[in-house]
Amino acid sequence: MSLALFLLYLVLSPLLMGVVNRTKSILAGRRGPPLLQLYADLWRLLRKGSVYSRTTSWVFVAGPVVSLAAAVTAGLFLAFGGLPAPLSFSGDFVLFAALLALARFATVLAALDTGSSFEGMGAAREVTFGSLSEPALFLCLLTVARATGSSSLSGMLGPGLAAAWTLAGPALLLAAIALFVVALAENARIPFDDPNTHLELTMIHEVMVLDHSGPDLALILYGASLKLYLFGALFVRIALGFEVTGVAAAGVLLLGLLAFGVLVGLIESVMARLRMARVPQLLVGASVLSAFGLVLLLR
Amino acid sequence: MSLALVLTGAVLAALSGLGAAALRRTPARAQRVTTAALVAGAGLGLLGALAALVGPVVSARAGWSAPFAALAFRLDPLSALFLVPVFAIPAAGSIYGLAYYPQASHGLSSVRLQVFYGLVTGAMAVLTVADTAVLFLAAWEVMALSGFVIVLTEHTREEVQRSAFVYLAAAHVGTLALFALFALLGSQAGSFDFARIAAAHLTPGPLLFGLLFLGFGLKAGLMPLHFWLPGAHASAPSHVSAVMSGVLLKMGIYGFLRVAGFFPSPPLALGFTVLGLGAISAVLGVAFALAQHDLKRLLAYHSVENIGIITLGFGLALLGRSAGDPSLVMLGLGGAVLHVLNHALFKGLLFFGAGAVDEATGTREIDRLGGLARAMPLTFVLFLLGAVAISGLPPLNGFVSEWLVYLGTLRALGSSSALAWSVLAAPVLALVGGLAAACFAKVVGIVFLGSARSPHGADAREAGKPMLRAMAILAAGCVLIGLFPGVIIPALHRAAAAWAGLDPALLSGPARSAASSAGLITASALALLALVGALAAWRARRTRGAAATETWGCGYSRPTPRMQYTGSSFAEMLTLRFAWAFFPRAEVRPPQGPFPAGASFGAHVPDTVLEVLLIPALKASAALAEKMRRLHSGLVQGQALLVAVTLVLLLSWRFLFW
Amino acid sequence: MPAWSEIVLILVVVIDFVLLASSRLRAVIRGAAMQGALLSLLPLFMAGRAELGHVLLLSLGALLVKGIAIPWLLLWAIREAAIRREVEPLVGFVPSLVLGALGVGLAFALSSAMPLPAPERHGFLVPTSLSTVFTGLLLVVSRRKAVSQVIGFLVLENGVFVFGLLLSDFMPAMVEAGVLLDLFAAVFVMGIVMFDINREFSSLDTEKLSALKD
Amino acid sequence: MIPVVLILVPLALAGLAFLDPSPRRRPRVLLVGGFAHLAGVLLLCADPGARALGGALELDPLAQVVLPTVSVLYAVCAIYAQGYLAARRDRENRLFVGGLLVLLSAMTAVALAQHLGLLWVAMELTTLSTAPLIYFSRNARSLEAAWKYLLVCSLGIALALLGTFFLALAGAAPGGPRSLLLAALVRAGPSLASPWVRAGFVFLLVGYGTKMGLAPLHSWKPDAYGEAPGLLGALLSGGVTSLGFVALARVVEVCRAAGELSFAKDALVVMGLFSMALAAVFVIGQRDFKRMLAYSSVEHMGILALGLGLGGVAASGAMFHTVGNGLTKGVLFLTAGNIHRSYGSKLVTEVRGAARRLPVSGPLFLVGFLALTGSPPFSPFFSEFTILNGALGTGRFLAGGLFLLFLSVIFVGMGSTVLAVVQGDPAGTPEVPAQGEAWVTAIPPLVLLGLVLALGLYLPPGLKALFDAAAARVVGSP
Q1: In Å, how far are A79, B81, B608, D218, D362 from B622, measured between CA atoms?
Q2: Which residues constitute the domain of residue D283?
Q3: Do B632 and B520 share a domain, yes or no?
Q4: Residue C184 clears pLDDT 60, i.e. is over it
Q5: What global pTM score does this model have?
Q6: In this predicted structure, which of B419-433, B529-543, D67-81, D361-375 has the lowest mean pLDDT?
Q7: Which residue from B598, D104, D370, D397 could staple onto D10, CB 3.0 to 4.6 Å apart?
């Protein structure tokens, strides 16, 4: 069952992107792209050739590869829908976070490899916000760990979560909210970053991949969708942490993800992107929020 | 047996420099002989250490007729684990030195370097197995002074003299603090043998705290006491920097561990204090690193950061000891000691790399470099491995030790007492990890990627074979520990038991679970590598014959290297967050007149403690001393008066007040 | 007979005051010589159980050295170096007199506070010696010229000599010999040095001697 | 009978030197005297407790500690003198050689004297014999130094004589010892008249403290050491000052017997710490490296006084320190002399890169500095560590803390000066032709340093027992 969910993760993640974009287009009163648009894009890109800058080295090609591989591997530890993950050990969420960090590291290096000042700018922003969102993520997970008394993702998201909600509801709520903010930041969504303007200067993630084309770009887009799906699943499970098993769990997860996608789309259509200077404040705020949650449990 | 091996290794290493001194006629051969001797000694020592890791605790004792002194040695798993870097890094360094600092071209200064380089190695090895205070102190000071000499290798350069002196002063003050520390311990325990001191079941008072932090913190480079470190590491030859930051600092940690181990149940306050210091060192260390422009200074500040991480683990272990929680001791100490080893490996690797860059380009200014990946591909790959490792990213060794520390915080999280608060070390560690990754993204990205930012390194060539070999050895260590952490867990288990003086059985629970988790880490790491390999293979097939062009400049068609992002601009957003701790100094030459000739802007972030606090304070006290000296007019009548006054004062003291 | 010695001792203290007060170098030297001569009488008066030969030797030596040789040496030095005749005090005469008086008072107080272990015949010796020592110190500290410092040292040694007399009847002769000998030697060497000072600096003003400082 | 010979032979040789017409041959006399003396001392140490002149001279433990040190230092300096005087042909060395030999005899007498009067005479002789030597270089500065040295020390010595008289008077009561023999005074013990013992101690502390150079009685030191030849500096700071310490210790011994020990100890601790403090103030930013050494000598005399004042373990540490300090000071002053000669300057601003120009003396200067500041495994480390132990072990935390504080400040202060002299590139600094490194002036300090190191690596058990015995005899066994 858990393996099935892992495969769903690999298969369905582009769909989640579709949901988000669909929501935005509906709210904007446009027809918008079909739900499966991203699959089509990926397929097209994979068949294309690619163009490389003369300044780039093998790092440029390795970047997308490593970050995609890291994202996939990270999925092995996430207990989708609260069902035990394929791999699980105490403190595995550290590895989970570290793999995502590895993905970021690879992307950033690939960006710097081009020597383009724009991509350098994007890389700088990416590492800045990444290093600020990392503590927030850990504080959320620690809150859950303290509440469930477990130290592995499978345990934290597993059946124990329901009981934890009854005992430590407020703390978990805070953690969930903070986690949602982190998810938006990590996936470069509004209000942190605007995934579909094409004014290079305003962006973080998109500007880092300006030079990537063809299959490389395909890997990047797919990796991005995986990351969104990961955080979505994590957020959904923590937010809807009630006792479920088997297929029901899968159902809850998928519905929850649908809701997550809609929510993200909703936010992107009603909010504007923050000024760069204010982004760190929001992330620190998320950390403070989840830290407060943790303190609630510690005292 | 194991101890004998270690001591022989130590002696061989200590005397290795004689080869260089003796065969000065044929410098190349002399250096090979010295290196061979050092490597052989290190080999013996490592054998002994490994034997001690699996075998029983060995101790030996011989008379030494100096006051309070004896030649008492003890080799337990903890010492053995510290011995691994003590022998491994200098050996690799001496191989590196064959090409980096050849005797043939540097002559006498290279001879001096080799002699004291060996001496440092030997002293550190003896220090690690010393079982009595005076022997410990003697080895300690020999290490410190030889360290001073090798930092001073290029003693004609102004800043080298300056930083070497700062190092010497700091080292000496630390040593004096240790005098006091051991004198106190000795007087309380009635003996200077570590065993007897430990048996005395002392409880440390604030005075001992202070001396402990001052004496060992200075050597280890804990944050407020790190001031000597960046300069010394930056101005020493690179393989010396590698040894200093990879091993010499760890002697401070070792002493800290040893002495703290004497206290059976330290108060919780001690553990939390250590934890706090670790947090400060880690965060501010990496913050200062981000703000550096000099490659080696940057690496030096990362040593402060990593010492902080080690101290975090150590603090957890102390807390576990106070709370009587063996698992916490196991995880905390295990993490700390493993990070000691790991940091030695990747920091050595990185300093070697930095040295190679320095040699190839003639500058350490990050913002002047760029695109070296093409000129020195092998150096680049090895340096990249080091960078990934130090950023605590899987699948390399840095991650493993940090993971152990995280496990420690999780263990504390489970407790219902005040202990649980120590979990706040985890987000700190996360922040530090993120910042470190950012910092090394900057280093690798700016130095090796993109294209050259200045004439420097236009004609850079790949580093010499010995240098690459030395780097490859250390890189292999990083990869192996990263992929198969399971093999080292048992050693950590025994070390932790030895430190806490507990029965290993008590700690076997967490050790076993950690080992099994380590197995899963191996599995996932292999999975990751397999995935990367597969994708990479596929991409490699696809990329052949791809079109090549300029970097997309968003419509701008004539990009120049000068337009690239620099290290400073890359780090700016982050350093802004720490502006409160920095006192940047800027040299600005604004454009003037209707036809400005030239303008320039330069800024650097000096060390706050040294440049903003210490040196002004010293200057002030010197001025004060100068004022007081004015009182001393050379008049002979005044001198006679002094005698008379002293007589009167003493008389009145004796007959009126005493 | 004790009466005589007491008179002598009183004279010695009076001479202390004279030395502090007089502004002429020669006068000071003569005063010191006078004091030396007076002191050389003391052993004769106090010759108790001790055998006569030793006493004669002692007083003769004292007379030769303190009363004649050294004063002559100093006068010769002044002539040689053509030193101006003024004393040139750092501390004026009146203050030095007051200080001297204070010192004498202190000396008497101190010696009354310190009972002599043996029922000695001349309890007057101790205060005299202490006040003379004090005067000597005062002269050394408060006079500018090198010569006057030598005189100060001479006076100081006189004080010590007076104290030594307390012990003369049971102390081995070596001590007194020591006093005379190295008093002589010290001043002698100082004299030589002074001539060199004169050659180097063409004056005996020790304020020129303050080049060495930090 | 050896003690008397040890005192007379150098005197005889001094006479010979005065008579000898040839300035080239004269230094050889020094060599003869030094090594004859060394041999005699070794011979004497074969039977400890040897006495002469009815016990006025005796080789007690304290003498056994100090006399060999002085003798070794002297012999090494005698070798050095060959090279030094050969390099100073321009100057008349009759007085110099003669004075040095008188000094040797005087120092021996001080070390062996058990009679306070004899002790005092010998001490005075050391002053008289060294004063002209300070004036060796016959210039204004050295003259000024000699004058100040002579005046201050004579004052001190006069006060010391008065103090000696006080002690004699203290024992003058009918049935009292009525003698200045140490043994007699100690035997009389409590029966001594305490007010006179107290006053006597104060006067003797000032008197011999002046010879020792304890602050604030030190004022002659920087001038004398700064202007005198390095050779003399070595003998003064390694020999004469240590003997001042010996004299003081003898007095303290009497005080202990008379039950006046506690004040003596307090006074010594206070003066010792004050000396260290003053040295710290004057060492920071010191531009003249010979004056710096003088203040370092003040510091170490302070350490000796402190150790003696703390008593117990610390006192035996102080005994050990007399040896280590004596020999190490020899290293520093001799090498400093070499550097001074070769640069013709002793100012940090003008001297640079000594390690390059004087490949032996330069590094030796640095290593000597490290040894003196208590870096293991050199012997001063062990003595200073012992003293620290004595302080902290007996709960004197303030004293111990100040001790460490001053040590570290002085290290930083001296270090900056020493390093500025030793390292760097000598190019562009003043150079005196034909005054480069010569083995006869470079080897002697090396020998001394070897001894210092050897005593650190291996301290013969007998020697350690000797230190304890000497300390026990002065301040009582811990």
Answers
A1: 65, 44, 20, 21, 26
A2: 262-478
A3: no
A4: no
A5: 0.89
A6: B529-543
A7: D104
